[in-house]
Amino acid sequence: MPPNPPSAPSKELHVFPNPAPERDYVIQFQIPEFTCHCPLTGQPDFAHFTIDMVCDKLCVELKSLKMYMWSFRDEGAFHEKVTNDILTKIVEVTKPRYARITAKWYVRGGIYTNVVAEHRKKGWKPDAPVTLPAHSTERGLLG
Amino acid sequence: MPPNPPSAPSKELHVFPNPAPERDYVIQFQIPEFTCHCPLTGQPDFAHFTIDMVCDKLCVELKSLKMYMWSFRDEGAFHEKVTNDILTKIVEVTKPRYARITAKWYVRGGIYTNVVAEHRKKGWKPDAPVTLPAHSTERGLLG
Amino acid sequence: MPPNPPSAPSKELHVFPNPAPERDYVIQFQIPEFTCHCPLTGQPDFAHFTIDMVCDKLCVELKSLKMYMWSFRDEGAFHEKVTNDILTKIVEVTKPRYARITAKWYVRGGIYTNVVAEHRKKGWKPDAPVTLPAHSTERGLLG
Amino acid sequence: MPPNPPSAPSKELHVFPNPAPERDYVIQFQIPEFTCHCPLTGQPDFAHFTIDMVCDKLCVELKSLKMYMWSFRDEGAFHEKVTNDILTKIVEVTKPRYARITAKWYVRGGIYTNVVAEHRKKGWKPDAPVTLPAHSTERGLLG
Amino acid sequence: MPPNPPSAPSKELHVFPNPAPERDYVIQFQIPEFTCHCPLTGQPDFAHFTIDMVCDKLCVELKSLKMYMWSFRDEGAFHEKVTNDILTKIVEVTKPRYARITAKWYVRGGIYTNVVAEHRKKGWKPDAPVTLPAHSTERGLLG
Amino acid sequence: MPPNPPSAPSKELHVFPNPAPERDYVIQFQIPEFTCHCPLTGQPDFAHFTIDMVCDKLCVELKSLKMYMWSFRDEGAFHEKVTNDILTKIVEVTKPRYARITAKWYVRGGIYTNVVAEHRKKGWKPDAPVTLPAHSTERGLLG
Amino acid sequence: MPPNPPSAPSKELHVFPNPAPERDYVIQFQIPEFTCHCPLTGQPDFAHFTIDMVCDKLCVELKSLKMYMWSFRDEGAFHEKVTNDILTKIVEVTKPRYARITAKWYVRGGIYTNVVAEHRKKGWKPDAPVTLPAHSTERGLLG
Amino acid sequence: MPPNPPSAPSKELHVFPNPAPERDYVIQFQIPEFTCHCPLTGQPDFAHFTIDMVCDKLCVELKSLKMYMWSFRDEGAFHEKVTNDILTKIVEVTKPRYARITAKWYVRGGIYTNVVAEHRKKGWKPDAPVTLPAHSTERGLLG
Amino acid sequence: MPPNPPSAPSKELHVFPNPAPERDYVIQFQIPEFTCHCPLTGQPDFAHFTIDMVCDKLCVELKSLKMYMWSFRDEGAFHEKVTNDILTKIVEVTKPRYARITAKWYVRGGIYTNVVAEHRKKGWKPDAPVTLPAHSTERGLLG
Amino acid sequence: MPPNPPSAPSKELHVFPNPAPERDYVIQFQIPEFTCHCPLTGQPDFAHFTIDMVCDKLCVELKSLKMYMWSFRDEGAFHEKVTNDILTKIVEVTKPRYARITAKWYVRGGIYTNVVAEHRKKGWKPDAPVTLPAHSTERGLLG
Ligand SMILES: [Ca+2]
Ligand SMILES: [Ca+2]
Ligand SMILES: [Ca+2]
Ligand SMILES: [Ca+2]
Ligand SMILES: [Ca+2]
Ligand SMILES: [Ca+2]
Ligand SMILES: [Ca+2]
Ligand SMILES: [Ca+2]
Ligand SMILES: [Ca+2]
Ligand SMILES: [Ca+2]
Ligand SMILES: [Ca+2]
Ligand SMILES: [Ca+2]
Ligand SMILES: [Ca+2]
Ligand SMILES: [Ca+2]
Ligand SMILES: [Ca+2]
Ligand SMILES: [Ca+2]
């Protein structure tokens, strides 16, 4: 792969082999630069996306993810639909054990909208979570 | 629907078909601009509402939600009652799998009051939660 | 009830009928203005109280709660005891399904003390909690 | 007890009878002023300790706790060991239902170290936790 | 051990005997000063690592951990791979009951990447977590 | 004055004699509960007001200020105009040495608007400010 | 003006008469939703704009400001140039006494860029600032 | 002086000789535990006081300051008056070069009140402040 | 210029013509990813740099700045010296009206070090600053 | 100088030649790990020190500063005196153009004490400060 392939919006999402498929580890992407259009009014919408994944055989390639998110820039998309569509796409190309999309949209009409959707591979179960006996420091009254 | 129907307070809550009914995904609305009256003294009260929903066949339309919350502006309403009434209304028009209302009221007499109520559709069970082995960064002692 | 009955410290806690007894909803009071005396040295102590309740037939009336908390102003009270006593009182007058008292005391001798106590009505069980697949936004390294 | 007995570092930890032994309530102490020495280099170390307890018949007396923590000032102590030793001491004098020690140490060599240890009385089980359907307010994207 | 052995990057990780092997206590290291190279472009990458461990017979020695993390400074390493490799190394030298690595990488192409991986010793089970009935203070609406 | 005169919106602002007219001291009021209407669309607007004053012979009475701010609830008012009108009113009734109004309005159309206006009595000069050689603690890089 | 004229990107900035031209008061707009293109690579850029103004005879109309900022969505623009161009435009249509533009751009190549530019009307002088003898509360060491 | 003289509320403020009268240095006291009564309604008021001083020949003794602030606990006091009275007292007993009192009062009727007053010794001038070319770190857009 | 010239550490700093030389506007770069070596011990050091500039005829090109900062990765450099050297370099290539470098270094030996240096072009004077009568919102006592 | 000379508390403060004496640049040290004794009661005191300097011919060597601050660990010292003494010492060994010491002490008797003292070389004047027309982003009402 050349060091810097040209950048352009794209509906293709590249993948690469999971370097540690023997573990159920988590990859999280934070994408604060997302914009599309409101399909009713045509006005721009902005959101902050978070993607959490437990990959199986394939991981999402970072640069193609950036170009994929860019591809919505000139499209109209309802808050609820675009969140679910991005999840569906990621599931399609990586067939992950688990994926979760969180979208936090900028305020409209005085109301903030957040949408969260997840996918679980059939038969896959998360490891029982290890809750460590640690906690945030309480600062007493004055903090 | 015209792009910008006239805005007015309204007790009607519009709905639209859930674009991804095959998933139990979450929609959250934050409504920091809520005001009504204290039914005893007539003085204005202010609150920040949060609505969390797992929709079934129908979603709440954002603009009608804004006009619905506005409709309480000239009504008297006890903290505990108005929170429950809004939940009841949302359940009535969307018949959701799950809905939760959180209301944080401004301080009165030196006391802050928060009210939280939820509804679950009969027979509906949330997916077993996936607790990912990720955590907030601890900053050691100095943070 | 007259709009503004005279205010005075009082050991009486007024109640009113729960407007939504069909639901296990939560009422939380934050009371940052609490002071009493140290029973050993007579010096003033200060604390921030939080009260969480799932009411049954009765709710706590806000103004009487304020006057009840005020009634400790001239009393001596150990941190551990006053927290438990306030819980006992609230349980006595409202017979709630659930009540929890959190008291955060100002630093004494370089040590901050926090006390938490709870009461559950016999036979009452909280609804299985609904853990929504939403999470706080991770901000990456720089946040 | 005289109002202000003389203060000095001490390995003795005083106790007093639990005023509400009928409940499994929690007492938390925050001790931000702890210092000892590194046993290898002799250099001073600093930490912030948090102690969480569900007492049984006895509670820890606050002033003696301060003097006990002070007693480490001129001792050499490894991070992992001193945390466990303080837990062992508290267990020995109060025989609590539950105790947990959290120590957050100042950065050394660019690394922050936090240690957490807990003790549970044999046969004691915590009450099933009541997870109230309340959550932190989400602030949308801009908060 | 001499007080200050010479510092140099090293792939060796020193250990010392666990001072309290009778308990499942937690040691957490925060390492905000990590840098390596992107294997594709050769450009520097930066990350903040968090290591959580329940040790068995051996603990990680702090200074060698610092030199081990330093050893990646001139190596190329994918985000997903280096996180897993560091976990594998720690498991190899300490054979812990539990270990978890969290890596938060600086933003690249407008996207923040976080990776979390964990290891559990065969047959080891975490103690059932004790969830104390305490919670963060809610500050009402204005905080 | 009776302890609790009835509360109602009012355009009257009560005053009382300045208890320390020999000093140029500052009184600041924070009023987070302000709402009026947009005069164009009729939709509700919300703002947080801050009033800073150096009084001369008269101070603003707190309860009447609350009722005065309430009096805008059913009025239409442009952001820029209402801020200036409130300043004009306060100047009219108290003839202060100095007054400053800060209004922070909730977001509209994705834009946050803040307005600040001040009044200085003719001939009045603020004392040359005393800038003490104190500063906020810098926390180094990691805070 | 109709309540809701159609929204579209526009290079026109509407104005209205300053309702309080007798005062040098400040209007601040916060515009967190700005995006344009990098003129070299074509990739999207995002920024948060702040506009501070002391108007003279004319104020900027809020809705047209939103549409003006939107008009950059499909244009290429260097960070330094677009900030100065927006300032030039605002000066041209409102001829303000003072205007300041602050643009905070999202990170590129690991570097955050902020640009600030201001315009002062010839001959205009800001009032000597009134520095009130008030300050942020210091919280001592533990806050 | 005995190590721990008995504590009681007191109107006497003790002083001790300034250890560095050759310098204009600043001493700041933060007193978050202040309570008195509203003289009209008799209800308790709470405030956080900050005292900044440039002493001349005498400094305020810390323990007597604590007992002095305690002495207001059972007194009625208007916000504006008590702040000025405390300043007057401190000036009387220490004749400082400079003193400033900041009082932040808990919310009443939805309004927060802060009062600030200062005293300057006749003929005393603060050193011209040294404004160092240092500033808080800007974090770009995402912080 | 090709869209993506190859990246490598470099001591060359590229410039481009200032697009608005008629104004004294400010460009600020935040560079959180800086690392070099301690010249005494060879151990890695990390810092966060902030560069504030009022350019004259030339601006610093962003990508070359990144490669310039990267060029220190394998060099030994004292905190005080490297900060001054970077300032000297920037002055040399852009001959700015004003430049300021702030470097915040990670903690070493329990001490955080920050260094700030600035350059002013001979004869250049900053515009008299415009201090707008706006201020941060005070939140009263409880925030 | 050997890479790691033995560490011990010391009253000696080492210096080295200022690498950029042609500029008035600022060096700031943050020292959060300071402890001494109260000379009256013998109890430990803790503080966070900040040292700001404009050096002349000499700079303070970091490691000796750490050992100097450590040397107060077993000494009794009044808050006001120790702050002034440390300033006097630093002035004595480096003869700086400017030095400022800020000490923030842990709460005692419910009161937080902060002390700030500064020294200016005779005839030295700080450069007129450059106040850049930049400011912190205002977040509107909801942030
Ligand atoms: Ca934690
Ligand atoms: Ca997390
Ligand atoms: Ca920190
Ligand atoms: Ca959340
Ligand atoms: Ca919560
Ligand atoms: Ca943000
Ligand atoms: Ca908690
Ligand atoms: Ca300060
Ligand atoms: Ca302030
Ligand atoms: Ca702190
Ligand atoms: Ca600063
Ligand atoms: Ca950030
Ligand atoms: Ca401000
Ligand atoms: Ca507080
Ligand atoms: Ca700033
Ligand atoms: Ca808020």
Automatic annotation (TrEMBL), chains A, B, C, D, E, F, G, H, I, J:
InterPro entries: GTP-CH-I_C/QueF, NADPH_dep_7-cyano-7-deazaG_red, QueF, QueF_type1. The active site is at C38 (thioimide intermediate), D45 (proton donor). The keyword Amino-acid biosynthesis does not apply. GO terms for molecular function: preQ1 synthase activity. It is found in: Cytoplasm. It comes from the Bacteria. It catalyses: 7-aminomethyl-7-carbaguanine + 2 NADP(+) = 7-cyano-7-carbaguanine + 2 NADPH + 3 H(+). Its main location: cytoplasm. Pathway: tRNA modification; tRNA-queuosine biosynthesis. The keyword ATP-binding does not apply. It holds the Pfam family QueF. Substrate binds at V60, E61, L62, H79, E80. Catalyzes the NADPH-dependent reduction of 7-cyano-7-deazaguanine (preQ0) to 7-aminomethyl-7-deazaguanine (preQ1). Belongs to the GTP cyclohydrolase I family. QueF type 1 subfamily. This is NADPH-dependent 7-cyano-7-deazaguanine reductase. It comes from Ideonella lacteola.
